[in-house]
């Protein structure tokens, strides 16, 4: 722990707020195990220490009062897939876009709708960031994982599920895991007590059906549900297994409970929600706090639930729209369960998208009003819709402009759960504790910068690099020497280096200090 953190810890230790609920500067909990933050966050913490420490005393008191009334708070985190900034009704889309989302819109109305929430630019890397609170480049998992790829989330990385499990939480994962195929990588070896999941993105779900149709006589190309030019003996020829839907318990061996099929994909979000509702009710009855991670598969374009496809206002040509509408109904079911059990005010619900839209299958695709798409670090690829709902703790109708990054949920959730001491202190944690923003509202974010990495889709590592850096409203692409004011120009259409020459050196120093911390805490290297 740095000398700065030790000094702060000595001061906060004298306060009357119990350590388990003391919220520290930069999202660091000021105990003997305070973890390492990146250089920019350390500087910001030193500058705002007095302000943050005062806020934390008030927040600590509110969390104490909540715990006395209900016990430790529950956490439900829902991660959407490929939903851009402009898809939901609460972000200017909805029925206007042929994707009605009345229940997510109501969640946003009754809670907090983030205007500048940022993810990583694609599926796997955002999941790494969420689970570890670390930029994916630090973990070695820096690409989208397809069947047969040996990479994945290694045991030495500590997930939010492990952090909360050590604090007495029941933990479960439902949906799209996408963090590796080996036993080491599986969710029940990464802190989850139970998991019902698939290992891949939606694109892999039709593969087995392609192989089946490939070997049938009298089948025409137009009758194949999703056409892939792949050999019929793919698994044998390449010694690659396409794993189906898995179910597993901590300490056990995952078992396959069904193959990947498009028919199952059509109803998979409903299936996952059914199991999640059981998990919530079972742990409520047992009096145990829970952390549920619902990584819905529903927003990719490889299935088309017929009931939702022909619903009012749904664009029937857009299969992703049908899946979003299906998922929106399941969000309603989850909210109603929390309210029925009378645990809504003791449950933080977060809904966020993992990245921007994938336009490759247009018109069956997502959408963003912003320039860019999935795999890109332009605003359309990384600025995503996100909602937080926590009755009595988050003020209804909140719409903060503050910067939030997906890594921040790791640290924020750990803090709200009183599990900050379980965060490892031997590595950089990029997540910033944003509890003050949730509770106090706009203007209380503890972040004023972002590092945007571009990752190689195919995992060679050659494409991974720091592509852009954000400081307040200014975004610099150092390799192109383009500078944008994101508040004034969210579509990044008007770069003017001359106007922003004054910021080049400060941002160069920000990047330099970031990279120097990587020298001190080297990035993990994994074999491809």
What descriptors fit this protein?
single chain, 528 residues, alpha/beta, nine-stranded mixed beta sheet, four-stranded antiparallel beta sheet, 14% strand, disordered N terminus
Describe the structure.
- The protein has 528 residues and is of the alpha/beta class.
- The protein is built from 16 helices and 16 strands.
- Strands 2-11-9-1-8-4-5-6-7 form a nine-stranded mixed sheet.
- Strand 14 and strand 15 (474-477) form a beta hairpin.
- Helix 10 (262-286) runs parallel beside helix 12 (319-340).
- The protein is globular, with a radius of gyration of 22 Å.
Main sheet attributes: strand count, strand direction, barrel closure: 9 strands, mixed
The structural class is alpha/beta
Helix content: 25-40%
List unreliable stretches of 5+ residues.
1-33
Strand content: 5-15%
Distance between the termini: 33 Å
- Calculate the mean pLDDT score and round it: 89
Describe the global form. Answer: globular
Round the Cα radius of gyration to an integer and report it.
22 Å
Strand order of the largest sheet: 2-11-9-1-8-4-5-6-7
Number of helices: 16
How many runs of DSSP E, i.e. beta strands?
A: 16
Oligomer: single chain
Topology summary:
Elements: H1 3-12, H2 39-47, H3 49-70, E1 74-80, H4 102-109, E2 112-113, E3 116-118, H5 123-132, H6 136-139, H7 160-165, E4 170-176, E5 194-198, H8 207-214, H9 234-238, E6 245-249, E7 255-258, H10 262-286, E8 290-295, H11 306-309, H12 319-340, E9 347-353, H13 379-382, E10 383-384, E11 386-389, E12 403-405, H14 408-416, H15 435-440, E13 449-454, E14 465-471, E15 474-477, E16 482-485, H16 501-520
Parallel strand pairs: 1-8, 1-9, 3-12, 4-5, 4-8
Antiparallel strand pairs: 2-11, 3-10, 5-6, 6-7, 9-11, 13-14, 14-15, 15-16
